[in-house]
Amino acid sequence: MTPLLELRGVQTHIGAYHILHGVDLVVPEGELTLLLGRNGAGKTTTLRSIMGLWQPSGGQVLLSGQPIGGPGLQLATPEIARQSIAYVPENMGIFGALSVAENLLLAARDARRLDQLDDARLAWLFGLFPALRKFWHYPAGKLSGGQKQMLAIARALIEPRRLLLIDEPSKGLAPAIVQNLIESLQELKRSRTTVLLVEQNFHMARQLGDGVAVMDDGRVVHAGRMADLAADEALQQRLLGLSLAAHQ
């Protein structure tokens, strides 16, 4: 079966720096795939290369078997987004002076006014993230960190997406808020939305991941099932330098 997303030998340079050294990655449709690795391993660069924000200098990025990125075949970032791919960056990209509602409206291509937003889609998002209904007219800049993260993900999902790329959503959040986020993403998984998730919280990774790829020094050095990695403490130590059991 053709994977929804595939990277074949992707190389990425940023200025004089060679960041990705031939990344091979497969993201099956309908699964949540974790991208793990130490700081500086190239995880964020991988997401940005998929979106065309940094253009690969070698290799290919394919969506349903069709090339969308790589030398000589690179789509522009807006074109990639129009392939029904959404990206939630680490900094969330929230417009703080706008309300929660206005942030969502900006991401809805077919709506010009709030009353044109899809009611069924909004109801589904409120089910995932109940705080968004409560703070609907509240300035987004005054939300808590966890609420901003939920808004960022909801904004990416205001329209149906084939693929969602999320970069470290739990970073800086209190444990109770992380658990709320885990529960929301578990509900998202039940909708069979395909997700590629970069995450450093290994308790969260173990609960959410179907597949996993581990990066080191700009390469994928391990790929498999998250359950197998979670059960193999020696492999965790070798790949990540830590034990998942220590991150309950």
Automatic annotation (TrEMBL):
CDD domains: ABC_TM1139_LivF_branched. The keyword Membrane applies. Keywords: Amino-acid transport, ATP-binding, Cell membrane, Membrane, Nucleotide-binding, Transport. The keyword ATP-binding applies. GO terms for molecular function: ATP binding. Signal peptide: none annotated. Residues 5-242 form the ABC transporter domain. Belongs to the ABC transporter superfamily. This is ABC transporter ATP-binding protein. It comes from Roseateles subflavus.
